[in-house]
Amino acid sequence: VDRGVTLSEALLRHDKWLEKKGIKNANFAVVTWSNWDCRVMLESECRFKKIRKPPYFNRWINLRIPFSEVFGAVRCNLKEAVEIAGL
Length: 87
Prior knowledge:
The protein has 4 helices and 2 strands; from the N terminus they run H-E-H-E-H-H. It is mostly helical and about 90 residues long. It has one domain (about 5-85): Nucleotidyltransferase, domain 5 (2-Layer Sandwich), CATH 3.30.420. The chain has a two-stranded parallel ribbon with strand order 1-2. The protein is globular and about 40 Å long.
């Protein structure tokens, strides 16, 4: 983290990557392991740092939900979920 780029730079690079791949304006969603990443952390960091949050971060898929539907309500982190799923 100490040698990483700023949040503003990371969001700009991500945006350019999406544009380069031709999907920036396509219908897509970010996939996370919980709602916390997009709803809480990114939202509050952007507000605190006065950075415009790209609108595509307002639609995401919480992978825990379909995982729980398939494997049951197992409490685990993403690494453990990948192992449970055999991936």
